[in-house]
Predict the structure.
Amino acid sequence: MTDRTQNAVKILIIDDEPVICNGCRLALAENGHATDVCHTGKAGLERINRDPPDIILLDLKLPDMEGMEILEKVREEYPSSFTIVMTGYSTIESAVEAMKLGAIDYLPKPFSNDQLLLTVERALEKKRLLEENRALRKELVDRFGFNNIIGENQRILTIFREIQKVAPTDCTVLLCGESGTGKELFARAVHAHSRRSGCQFVAVDCSTISPTLLESELFGHVKGAFTGAVQNKAGIFEVADGGTLFLDDVANLSWEIQGKLLRVLEMHEYKPVGASTIKRTNARIIAATNKDLRVMAGEGQFREDLFYRFNVFPIYLPPLRERKDDIPRLAYHFLRHFCRKTGKRIQGFSDDALELLIHQDWPGNVRQLKNVIERLVILSEQPYLNLMDLFDHLHHTRPWGKNSIPETYAELKAVKKHLLEQVFSETEKAFLLNALKASSGNITHAAERVGMQRSNFHTLIRKHHLATSSPPSDRI
């Protein structure tokens, strides 16, 4: 056994002819490869099981077993080991059969050292490309997979399950949700979990390109098609061929573009602007909208036939106000992200600041929350983000007037009153309802359960108009 450097390619030679083994070993060693030799199939399998090599040079005719048997086992159990088949019984049939069983290449005996080295280098190049592709796929899934989407709300978990089911298919997906709900992030998750993940993901915002330019962008154009078309240009459908095309804001598509898209979805073909020939595309479409396409179709503002083509597998992304239990996770995720980017060491949020974040409506959804946290991190010099930090960055009515910080004790008390009455009102009401539900509506039992005096608990009930009086049965 030759010495192996840390980065040497490991090559196993399985052949019962010593002359062949020694010749291969010497030629490969001179090129820096680490080689082992086995003269029987059984010894070869034992060696593979102990330490799978990078490349296997395998004779198809061995004294104790058929090389095809070893080839099939390697394919099933050691897919990272590439096999080159060697045989003196060179026929087209055996070569085809070996390739079907997973051989990467074929060497008919006798062969020269140059033929051997060239075949090994081709196999190593294919192996490197495969490993790079696997690494890129893993990076893609890590970056755009579910771990990158923050949320444990039940509706988000349901979306994850839907994506896992639809991603491996070529089905058209329609993502519906308000602006800022992360439609492109979910579209990338579909792509990352699909069979197309090694190909292009191309995103187009249909609302930012004028209708006259969008046709050329999507389908391309030929030289002379219009003023300024000085050369042929490939369209996005050509660039995304074999991959995924994400069309955002499809509600803004012109009627003419809608008709052309319908043909692409139905026939997988299109015509570049100014061209006389048809091109085909194998791009998968993921569409997104923040409007109700069904309503638009009913009002004649969107093609009904195109809506049904888009709506094969609709996924509704809930707004942030409908998944408030995810806000603390998102807030801390963005806090850590922007602390890393800015080098700040902010440890977290004060309790009242986090409560204020939770009780916002967030009309801009996750995007708005992200932007607010980024501004807070940039401006803050404190170890914790507190309530006063938030007031300057949220659209809240300040009870103390124009100044961002109360200047008198009276103003401070007004701020406190405002927060108690406006910000925490929903939490307080939910707290009461939860306690009453757990106690089957019995006020006394509910008060005891939460550790409050009955009179104080009843006062809060009246405050929130949950009950106007307590009947003798002590139930509401």
Observations:
- The longest helix spans residues 113-144.
- The domain at 151-318 is CATH 3.40.50.300 (Rossmann fold).
- The chain is about 50% helix and 10% strand.
- The chain has four domains: 10-136, 151-318, 322-423, 425-463.
